[in-house]
Amino acid sequence: MIFSGSVVYVNPENLSRAKEILKFSDNIDVFAVSDDKTQIIIAIEADSEEHIQKICADLRGFPEILEVAHHIFHFEDEVEEILAGNKVPSLDGFFKSKKREER
Amino acid sequence: MGKRLAVFILLLSLVAFGAASAKSSKAKGHPEKMGTADCIECHVDVTPEAYQQWEQSAHGFTGVKCQVCHGDEKNFKKTPDQLTCIGCHDHEAENNTAPKVTCITCHKAHTFLTHKPGYTPTDVK
Amino acid sequence: MMNITRRNFIKASMAAAAAASVGVTLPKQVEAAEAVDKWVKGTCRFCGTGCGVYVGVKNGKLVAIKGNPDAKTNFGFLCVKGFLAYKCMYHPDRLKAPMIRQKDGKFKEVSWDAALNYVADRFKYFRQKYGKDSVAYYGSGQALTEETYTFNKLFKGGFRTNMVEGNPRLCMASAVAGYVSTFGSDEPVGSYADIEKSKCLFITGSNTSECHPVLFRRIMRHKLNNPDVKIIVCEPRKTSTTKIADLWLPVDPGTDLAVFNAMIKYILDNNLYDAKFMAENTRITNGKEVKSIEEYKEFLKDFTLEKVEKLTRCPAENIKKAAEWFAKSDATMSLWCMGLNQRVKGTWANNLIHNLHLITGQICKPGADSFSLTGQPNACGGVRETGALAHLLPGTKPVANDAWRAHVEKCWDIEPGTIDPKPGFHTMKMFDALGGEADSSKPIKAVLVCTTNPAQSLPNLHRYVKGMQDSFMVVLDIFPTRTTQLADVVLPAAFIYEKGGVYGCSERRSQLTEKAVEPVGQAKADIWIAAQLAKRMGMEKLIPWNGDDTMKMNEMAWDDYRNITKDTDHTFAGAPYSRLKKEKAGLQWPCPSVDKPGTVRRYVRGEDPMFEHAGFKAKFGHNFDPARKVNFYNDAKKEGKANIFMRPYAGAAEVPDADYPFYLTTGRVIEQWHTGTMTMRIPEIARAHSNAYVEIHPDDAKKAGITAGDMVEIASKRGKCVMPAHIVTGTLPGVLFVPWHDQAFIRMINFVCNDAVDEVSFEPEFKIAAVKIKKVSGPKNVAEKFIIRDINSKYS
Asked: Residues of B with CB below 8 A from C239's CB?
């Protein structure tokens, strides 16, 4: 289980629509909106890194959502799992070849 | 195992670094040098609308000036945190019917008088 | 799988961190996760409003403050000082160790034992060589009730001297004299709760909006909710208080007695008085004989609206309107503060306000009261009620009263005749009599100064500095001040939240502050210092509370005080610590037993428990006519009546003339408090009004060739200051205003102020001086936020 504290950037006129979208996902909790209505503070709960990436990719697919930025992660039992030797952390994002691919 | 852990720690610290740099990129303190001037001396000109709203508000009447909520040059906050409001309006905060939203969601800075028109609570769950 | 609460907690923390990094505010519950370990109940450290607070403690440090929503004074609201200035307790300048001044003039840190032994030895020496009255105490309306009570007991009962004074002499003495002479007992009849029930508010000699902001908030709310409520402000300055006023009565400083008399005359002449109330509950008197209403009218015949307008500059029409509103409203409440008290005719001014209420019957009913506001958090509770002034004993009763002295001696378990029947010197006389051993004209050789800063706060300072310098002066404080610069011994005191104790505010309400954290450094509670001195001078029997647990010591002192006053109208017999700890809003005296709620309104049958108080009736021989609802039972003549004193007109001690053509009046600004020792150490506050300035009317400025910001010299016969000019239209032409918090020598306005005193209350006339002004230079930036930081710095 991974948690992230993230900020969703929107245009003010799309705020309510964006909030509707976020509401649809069971993995997302909305906590606050900035005064200027451009930032939505959310917490994401996901099974794995890949899961978070997928959630974000989905969100970015909506035209109302400009960007999703993660500011902090919390790897609760993920750490325990790794320490217990039950899980190998994925190092996907660390390989140059992979990055080149993405570009 | 040891190697995996080391990689994981590296990963963790990178994330942490990312978070920290995001934080530090946000300039701390008042964006302008304040010298010895009182907030109002400049803000009466640079943010006349905010000044006028404040002056006519309950805060204006009772002398709750800029720095009470926004802090001084070094501890300046553009948006005061909720604890600032609670300092005086604890009772209201406790009896808030929309407890998940901040005070200023509904009580518009700097008039604070009434609810913002067309306000919708953010804590729809 | 982790449980739901933990998951929610993590998510909240994640959101909090993300929000913090982009500067967005999160809702309350999320923040609460990291707020404080505990909230401790207490009282605000600043003005006399008595705001209830909770201080937040985390890891043994005070980290937050919030208003107590259950408090009957502030309902949870705080002003800028209350909200921010508690932080001064962790300022690096805090005094942290006892210090004795050495031969080279520098202070040296010593142990508590060494410091206390030294002070006790010196005090013994002076008492032996120069007599019992050679060692004096000068206390404060900011010390806790238990502390002041302990020092008062030590000096009057132990040292047998009445040389016990406190700074309330400089601020509230005229109010005390006014209440005692009119009603027979000190402190207001009603409560703050009358504000919301009033239909007309008469605010005079008080810039409530800046000096009592939280009370002003209540007034403002009341006015906004009820636009028909009339608010009258009578002041030489058009202060921010007038923003919500319907009527401003501008008066030249010191001439308001004529305005009050004109209002009384107008009310009497136009039959707007309450003849029934007057006949039943009052007597008109010139101080010797009882007079009739007709005689009072004759006495007032010169106070016509026209003549008074000429004398005071207050438009006749405004006086007339004020008199009508005052008399005709369903409930009128007066509020005043230093503007009336700090005057050579302060007692008379107080009497005249009471008269207005007594002739109109605007008293002893909801919303109608003659209410004096207090400047300090514990002037009422700590000094007035415990009788810590030169002429008083606990219960605000005179030391000259044989029966009361005998009662106090019995309670203190000391030999009859121990307490000196002769009052000591009032504050100005005390400092005038203070001097070194070489000066035989100065009978007082040593003084212990507790929680106050006389070297900045006394008027006409030049006259008193030498005495403080030459005498043996011990100062108990939390910061270096102007007074520590003149001291021989400095003892570091604990801040209120580091020791706890009782504060009693303007409305007879005493509230308990719990000790929240340990004092910084070696700082100690003042009560501990008092008890340790007593012990070293062989008086531990008199002050038996000499342990180390300050809350325990406080409780013993509080119980001692309660025992003395249990049969008086000041009774707190029903307010032991066990109850005060539970009461979220404190208690108002009279509170004769634990089953009584305390008293919102005095002198009214059914509301005031003294009507049924057997001990009170037996001790003072009062009888209550069962036919009367109202009874001013402290009446010396035992008729249950209040005095309507016929007071003639008298102006200020010093009025402008050809050489000194301006009135100078001084006062406060919202952010700063008294001599700025605490508030000037808070950056947010220091920025606002970081230096003193002089407010000048544009007409006067033009004549003197002064433009905004110019450096102006203000000089009286006594001294001078130089500070920047603020050109304002709010003040009457011919009247200057200067705030007095600035510690910079060149801007300490008390060098200029007058030390002439009221002949009844002995309160000096801070509020009025005749001065001249001249431009010294163009604008200079003096917003240096000057504070005294170096304990070895010089008084200059």
From this structure: none
